[in-house]
């Protein structure tokens, strides 16, 4: 290892504290570009976390989070008692200037949201053209007209009592969750809910178990608060409870048991019991993200993990997938032991989620509009799922395998003799079709090279036809 300090590198790092995105993400992205472009050579030493935090005027935890992201991508390695070094083979020296320019252009397009003309199989977008505008408008007008004066001021950080009571009733009716409204905390979406939980029961020394693969945003959120993220493999039945380390005591275990993201497995009852027992024995919390459980197409909806231990499992829900992302409303069902601390973090963050939107949502639920909308969308999404599966099987004959199609708003397709490398993604970009490789959500790389996440909820039939046709042409080449 070369013991070369990164003084020159530090001078060329630019941190913009008013820019969208975290400071750790900015540091990670700038180092990543320097390593990929060969500006930082193999075995070159990065600045120490203490030195870089001083030079950039950021916290040391911010630098630690950035270095952890670099390590998770395989860009750097940490040598005990020595430092952090660039790993061999991380530079993309084989890329032509044309390809590198195209990659930079793609990053610029993604940053600006320029996806015009692209068929995007995004996995997290509902059918925005089918939003129940009239029903929502009626609920919003009534809520605004009849709202009490306190709803226009600084409101309860836990959320409006009317909404929390309706959520408790809705969850018991649809998910078998029995909870008092005082255990419900309204958030501005899943990301904020997970951030509140991380602030509540994590410290830099905490261990966090996360399904692998799992939503990469979840890993990033927890990695800002803990230096020890432990990936636990999943299979068709969800998280592998037989691989949970016996010698560890995690602070929390993150799972998506109803419809594992992204592979789509449903956690079996045997593993649910084993997981809860494991957490009980180690005084750990389980974070259950139930992001799209409303849309089940085969059999009956799986009961929530929360019902097995209400003081051990935190239930996380959102309305971004059911209604529309800009509603920015989600919720946590908390053990009583966490309510006060989460409430305080919420108060210090944004004080409360939009009270008038909360009242509108309460009206929307109370009128029965929400459940009617879910039933309607479930039928539409089922048809779109069936069409996508049929198109894939016809376009790729016997060279495609489908996973995770029994529920949710996406499926996973595994293509024979296909690797979703940067070159493959570049071909897809040129064909004006966008997919997300499963590898982008994997902590341990190399196990899902031919798999892609294909969201279908937001794509009408004509775009599903066109998207699969473009996908076939690009992958055939």
If you had to describe this structure to a student in words, what would you say it looks like?
- The protein is an alpha/beta fold and 477 residues long.
- It has three domains: 7-86, Winged helix-like DNA-binding domain superfamily/Winged helix DNA-binding domain (Arc Repressor Mutant, subunit A), CATH 1.10.10.10; 99-124 and 373-476, Alpha-Beta Complex (Aspartate Aminotransferase, domain 1), CATH 3.90.1150; 134-367, 3-Layer(aba) Sandwich (Aspartate Aminotransferase, domain 2), CATH 3.40.640.
- Helix content is 42%, strand content 14%.
- It has 15 helices and 16 strands.
- It has helices at residues 7-11, 23-36, 49-56, 60-72, 97-112, 133-146, 161-175, 190-201, 216-223, 269-282, 336-349, 355-366, 369-396, 422-430, 461-476; strands spanning 76-79, 83-86, 119-120, 184-187, 207-212, 228-235, 238-239, 252-255, 285-289, 313-318, 330-333, 400-403, 410-415, 433-434, 436-437, 451-455.
- It has an eight-stranded mixed β-sheet, sandwiched between helices.
- A hairpin with a 3-residue loop joins β1 (76-79) and β2 (83-86).
- It is globular, with a radius of gyration of 23 Å.
- Residues 1-8 and 94-114 have low confidence and may be disordered.
């Amino acid at each position: 290892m070369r013991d070369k300090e990164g003084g020159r590198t530090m001078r060329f790092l630019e941190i913009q504290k008013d820019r969208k995105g975290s400071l750790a993400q900015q540091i990670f992205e700038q180092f990543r570009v320097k390593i990929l472009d060969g500006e930082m050579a193999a075995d070159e030493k990065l600045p120490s976390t203490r030195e870089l935090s001083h030079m950039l005027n950021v916290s040391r935890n911010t630098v630690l989070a950035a270095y952890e992201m670099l390590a998770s991508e395989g860009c750097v390695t940490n040598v005990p008692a020595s430092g952090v070094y660039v790993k061999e083979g991380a530079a993309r020296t084989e890329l032509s200037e044309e390809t590198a320019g195209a990659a930079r252009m793609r990053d610029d397009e993604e940053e600006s949201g320029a996806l015009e003309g692209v068929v995007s199989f995004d996995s997290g977008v509902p059918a925005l053209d089918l939003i129940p505008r009239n029903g929502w408008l009626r609920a919003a007008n009534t809520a605004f007209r009849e709202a009490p004066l306190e709803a226009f001021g600084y409101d309860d950080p836990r959320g409006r009592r009317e909404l929390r009571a309706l959520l408790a009733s809705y969850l018991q009716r649809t998910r078998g969750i029995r909870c008092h409204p005082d255990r419900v905390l309204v958030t501005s979406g899943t990301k904020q809910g997970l951030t509140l939980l991380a602030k509540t029961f994590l410290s830099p020394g905490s261990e966090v178990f996360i399904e692998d693969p799992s939503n990469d945003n979840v890993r990033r959120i927890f990695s800002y608060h803990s230096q020890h993220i432990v990936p636990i493999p999943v299979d068709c039945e969800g998280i592998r409870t037989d691989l949970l380390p016996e010698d560890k005591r995690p602070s929390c275990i993150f799972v998506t048991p109803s419809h594992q993201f992204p592979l789509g497995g449903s956690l079996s009852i045997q593993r649910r019991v084993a997981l809860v027992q494991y957490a009980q024995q180690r005084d750990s919390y389980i974070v259950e993200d139930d992001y799209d459980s409303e849309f089940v197409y085969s059999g009956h909806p799986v009961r929530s993990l929360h019902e097995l231990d209400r003081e051990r499992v935190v239930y996380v829900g959102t309305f971004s997938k059911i209604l529309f992302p800009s509603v920015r409303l989600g919720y946590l069902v908390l053990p009583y032991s966490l309510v006060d601390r989460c409430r305080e973090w919420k108060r210090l963050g944004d004080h409360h989620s939009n009270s008038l939107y909360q009242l509108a949502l309460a009206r929307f639920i109370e009128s029965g509009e929400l459940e009617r909308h879910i039933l309607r969308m479930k039928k539409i999404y089922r048809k779109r799922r069936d069409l996508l599966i049929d198109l894939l099987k016809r376009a790729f004959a016997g060279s495609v395998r489908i996973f995770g199609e029994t529920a949710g708003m996406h499926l996973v397709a595994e293509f024979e003799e296909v690797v979703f490398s940067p070159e493959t993604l570049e071909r897809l970009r040129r064909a004006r079709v966008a997919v997300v490789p499963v590898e982008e959500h994997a902590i341990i790389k190399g196990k899902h090279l031919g798999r892609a996440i294909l969201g279908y909820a937001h794509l009408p039939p004509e775009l599903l036809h066109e998207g699969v046709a473009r996908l076939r042409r690009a992958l055939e080449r």
